[in-house]
Here is the input.
Amino acid sequence: MTVLCLVEPDGAAVADVSRRALTFARALAAPVGGEVAAVWFGAAGGVPVGDLSAYGAGDAYAVESPQLTGYAPQAWARALAGLADEVSATAVVAAATDRGSEVMAHLGAITGLPVAANCVSAAPGGPAEPAGFRLVRQRWAGSLLEDSLLEAPRALLTVAADAVAPAPAQAPAVPNVRARRPVLDETDLRVQAVESAERAAGASLATARVVVGGGRGVGGPEGFGVLEELAGLLGGVVGVSRVVTSEGWRPHRQQVGQTGTRISPELYLACGISGAIQHMAGCLSAKHIVAVNTDPDAPIIARADYAVIGDLNEVLPALIAAIRTRASS
Amino acid sequence: MEILVCVKRVPMVGGKIVVTADGQDVDTRMSGFTVSPHEECAVEEAVRLVERHGGSVTVLTLGPADAAGQLRDMLALGASRAVLLETDGREWGPIATAEAIVAAVRGRETPYDLLLFGNEAADTGDYQVGVRVAHALGLPCVTGIKNLEVTAGAEAGAAASARARREYRGTEEIYDLSLPAVISVKEGINLPRYPSLPGRLRAKRATIESSSPPWSGAQWHPEGLRKERLRVPAGESKRAEVLGTGADAVPALVTLLDTLGVLP
Here is the structure.
């Protein structure tokens, strides 16, 4: 049994989301003595063998093609379909990123097979469903879980990366790197990323160590100065709830939530945020949530680790003053 | 330009999500319904394109009779025509949903130049209906789009093209597509307008073109992925430790931030 895993790069290394997908793939393959084969788009010489070894990939396929000058979703799916046939893959797995989700959707369309999106865990089916896979997957971006049974000749799965911790293999493998040139037709290459301009550097919401969040309780676009000041003091960034971007108070790129950015900071200080499902889905990976809210019965109080009951316009200036006093003494 | 926007009726969940006793659905007795956020932006984008280039916007949904309410909401935003593929309330999977949409697209005399979808539905998050529709119709497709420019053909009948952008790991990817094409968009591509009063009145009077399956053979069928049970993840109902009230809580808060190692 072979589980193919699409691996996305982070520079020359394996991206964190793909380490999680490899961990997921290993958990699916291991109980039945199967193995994980990684799929890497790029030259065989650039395959991050060390990372793949650490995460237990026994084989690595480098997909090379002079036709692929940039990321091309349908072409990637075509190549994956060919590899899946070649190794008789039981399952094909990818992190549920923009690319992973898109490529797997194309693979589903090409093969006519179902795609189970945002899986948290997967296991081969029991005696009653030998051709099936027992899945747990997310709905509502993780606010709900679905137990399901997938019956398909080949399982196509995307992995809800924030729900699977990356774990190196106990017995690292030494992957054999094999180069493959996919057979692509014109339609596979119609959509290809033609340019990828580097964007201005800045503290990123997704990777910030501290996020100071503001919601409806901030009151309006002019109220964010105090949040910016506190975020600056803590070396963090400001994030906002959906109502704030829907009202046009702050740009959408600052939105934390199901339809915005997923954050995973050490501290999320959520100020004047009620804690709607849509918002909390964006901070499932925050290590510590502290809520500042006037309403002790706000939903966020039931989801936070700590709470201050009070008006953010009173609490935050006092907090900023206390931090400054402490820093100067 | 003739633009189709596909939308999905989903429960409007607030601070808490509740599952029905049989574990099959979200309990909606206390909540209303809405359109997935990405899709509302898709409708806004379509309306803006038609305001610039002329043409019309059709909104389509597959769902129960009550989904007509969500179609009217989208008509109020400026869509000109609404199509309801009416189901018996069962949850349709992404394969059957795509088949129904394809049948509706093929059945239209004037072809669409652009088919817009939301990137993924708020509830199921399957991320695939648009891609499956594109494959069935042989159209180019790109997802996750946060910026879209459409250039009309230089002469009447000449092919129009689209330039679509999205973010990937801190960089921007640019895609050039010839139309017709399928594009899935994300919230943030625009800020949807509030429906105007005339818009709402027009929507209220508008005719919803409703039909029932099968559509050219397209009907509900099992898809290999079978939902058995929905449940709320464990650990959802902890209770925060209250550090204090108002500014009096600040010393405790500073101590906590110090413990977490986030103070300067």
Q: What stands out?
A: The longest helix of chain A spans residues 312-328. Residues 132 and 151 of chain A are 4 Å apart (CA to CA).
